[in-house]
Write a structure and sequence with these properties.
By secondary structure, this protein is an alpha+beta fold. The protein has 5 helices and 5 strands. Helix content is 31%, strand content 22%. The chain has a 5-stranded mixed beta sheet with strand order 2-1-3-4-5, sandwiched between helices. It is globular. The N and C termini lie far apart (35 Å). Bound molecules: tetrahydrodeoxyuridine. Tetrahydrodeoxyuridine binds next to helix 3.
Length: 142
């Protein structure tokens, strides 16, 4: 992480985000795994959006907490994410799964930071060399 990212990490409301993630976790629908997850993120315009996992009898259709979060982001005005926190049923920091890192990458603001099990990290650190929207622009000639 760069010094600029370290400076911005200090100013972010990590406790508030983790509190919002924990509250969201309390709404999880997890009759199959019994593994509730909550996620919360700060948007560029200062909103806090959150989500919980929602499972399904057809197990593979389970929606992760991050799916719910990006849906709420879009439904409450859109925008990009600045900071992210995710918790398990005990309120401990949880790493987003691979698919969810991709979901978050789509909506990252420049310099987005994540609270992880090994400290605060940039989006690029948790999903290096990512495929993203930038790869789909003007590829008509290929
Ligand atoms: N889960 C999430 O909600 N987000 C993640 O990033 C990791 C996994 C959920 C999916 C499933 O309901 C439960 O955790 C167990 O895999």
């Amino acid at each position: 992480m760069t010094t600029a990212a370290q400076d911005s990490a200090r100013d972010l409301p990590w406790e508030e985000l983790t509190r919002a993630a924990t509250e969201a976790m309390g709404r999880a629908y997890v009759p199959y795994s019994n593994f509730p997850v909550g996620a919360a993120a700060l948007t560029e315009d200062g909103r806090i959006v959150s989500g919980c996992n929602v499972e399904n009898a057809s197990y593979g259709l389970t929606l992760c907490a991050e799916c719910s979060l990006v849906s709420q982001l879009q439904m409450t005005g859109g925008g990009k994410l600045v900071a992210f926190s995710c918790v398990d049923g005990a309120g401990n920091t949880l790493m987003p799964c691979g698919r969810c890192r991709q979901l978050l990458y789509e909506f990252r603001a420049p310099g987005m930071l994540l609270l992880t099990v090994s400290g605060i990290k940039t989006m690029e650190e948790v999903l290096p060399d990512a495929f993203g929207p930038e790869h789909l622009t003007d590829n008509s000639a290929q």
